[in-house]
Amino acid sequence: MQSSSAHPTSNDRREGLVIETDVNLKPYNTFGLPATARRLVRIREELDVRRVVDHPELGRAPKFVLGGGSNLVLTRDMDAVVLKMEIPGLRVEEREDCWIVEAGAGVTWHDAVAWSLEQGVPGLENMALIPGTVGAAPVQNIGAYGVELKDRLESVDVVDLTTGRRVELPAAVCRFGYRDSVFKQTGYGGLAGKSVITKVRLRCPKPWQPLLGYLDIERKMGETGIAAPDARQVFEWVCEIRRAKLPDPARIGNAGSFFKNPVVSAEQCRDIISRDPHIVHYPMADGSFKLAAGWLIDACGWKGKSVGGAGVYEKQALVLVNRGEARGAEVVTLSRAIQESVYGRFGIRLEPEPVVI
Ligand code: EPU
């Protein structure tokens, strides 16, 4: 059995909670939008959640769980107590049929992917460079280049925000869908606002099999002549593809894809194709079709357009960007204008991916 640890768990921390007040959230959201948190607590170990729950004031106050802030549009100051997830830790355990990579919720997702490869564990490479933290990854079931988080999830540890109790949830109960999970759902059994993910276990199956069926990756294989890439090669290709078409949030504020790719029935799809034969569409297993929202927005002429400081990225119309001093309200105005024009031309309602506060 192989077992290693990148970050020792912190047991040298003094007891008790540090409650920071009037914290500037601009550095904590990848869009770089201005907002202030009235109260913010850094969660550096699971026990900190318990401390919040047991706290005489914080325990009863509404809470907002903040990961990497990469799926967030802040239009106002945050009244809820912000729990900023900073739980570290990476370990790997080798089993006969898989490797289990266990990561603290505060680990940067890409670091977990890169670290796993360094340990000789393949399987996460198609999801390289997705912004955000490990703890946020299951919430919206992140995915890219043919792999979704749900395809690699073993289990998550969650702490109940009312009782402070921890439970381990196996992937099967997480109700995963396209950019959706039980952690986002508010209806019956939904866990949105009720619990916080503290640890994630990822399952990388043996033997490793590359997933190369995505057009951009096939193109790389053609260009390089490499027909049987290893996981490190796929990782590098995915990083190159993403860097070429998606803005680096460290330089240009953004929250990744702003809308989900809409799913329509075969009949609707045929109807749209009869009017727009070039529309990019992918058949789904259940007979429906997924349409490329980026193509729809591009077709409506939005690429490069702006509303105040908010704009549509020049190289990928599905990504809205902060051109400098954008405010959350400008991002929302721009996104509504895009929704209206796509609805007007195609009769399709685009659903935003990020959480708007
Ligand atoms: N397209 C255009 N014009 C544009 C943008 C896209 O014509 O301005 C066309 C492309 O040419 C392509 C198609 O639309 O034929 C799809 O574009 P792309 O391959 O860039 O992927 P996407 O559907 O826009 C999705 C995910 C991304 C993920 C990529 C790769 C969603 C909402 N987005 O984007 O995830 O990285 O596939 O798997 O599902 C994210 O969720 O934040 C995200 C970046």
What class do helices, strands and sheet pairing give? Answer: alpha+beta
Which compounds are bound in this model? Answer: uridine-diphosphate-2(N-acetylglucosaminyl) butyric acid
Number of strands: 21
Order of helices and strands: EEEHEEEEEHEEEEEHHEEHEEHEEEHE
Could you tell me the mean pLDDT? 94
Using only C-alpha atoms, the radius of gyration works out to 21 Å
Strand content: 25-35%
Query: What fold name goes in the CATH topology slot of the largest domain?
Result: Uridine Diphospho-n-acetylenolpyruvylglucosamine Reductase, domain 3
Q: Which spans of ≥5 residues are poorly predicted at pLDDT below 50? A: 1-14
- CATH class label of the largest domain: Alpha Beta
Total helical segments:
7
Q: What's the architecture of the largest domain, going by CATH?
A: 2-Layer Sandwich
Task: Characterize the overall form.
Answer: globular
Kindly state the percentage of residues in helix: 10-25%
Report strand order across the widest sheet: 1-7-8-13-11-12
Number of spatially distinct domains: 4
The biggest sheet, with number of strands, parallel, antiparallel or mixed sense and barrel status, is: 6 strands, antiparallel
Intertermini distance: 45 Å
What's the quaternary structure here? single chain
